[in-house]
Amino acid sequence: MKLNGKDFDRAVQRAIGRIPREIRRHLDNILISVQQNPPPDLLEAMGLPPDEPLLGVYQGASLLDRSTVNPPLYPDTIFIFQEPLEEMCDTLEELEEQIEITVVHEVAHFLGIDEEKLIELGYE
């Protein structure tokens, strides 16, 4: 599946709209940036091989790691990687579902939510 940038951005917006309010409300102060692919240096820094599909990544300080003494220097950002997501999906519905799952997992990193809670919420 392959979408142009505008159509992919609309798919991201629809996917975000599907996220339960209890999680979505935390996106108000998080920048979401769509990139074609993860940069090689990011994969290297994460210890992933260049051919490993990375769908998204959160960059910032989780709420558990923040303090008033040392506020974050940069805005919290979720990067969504378009090409890996498109490669794993055959339909627009599958793509939106996978984007939703990816964003929820990245918000979980921000909130300090563990995998067990994500599974409880239906995000495996």
Short description:
The chain has six helices and three strands, in the order H-H-E-H-E-E-H-H-H. It has 124 residues and is mainly alpha-helical.
Overview of the structural elements:
This protein has 124 residues and is mainly alpha-helical. It has a single domain, classed as 2-Layer Sandwich (Zincin-like). It is 46% helix and 11% strand. It contains six helices and three strands; from the N terminus they run ααβαββααα. The chain has helices spanning 5-18, 21-24, 40-45, 82-88, 92-111, 115-120; strands at residues 31-35, 56-59, 77-81. The protein has a three-stranded mixed beta sheet. α1 (5-18) packs across α5 (92-111).
Which key terms come to mind for this protein?
Zincin-like; 124 residues; mainly alpha; 6 helices; globular; 3-stranded mixed beta sheet
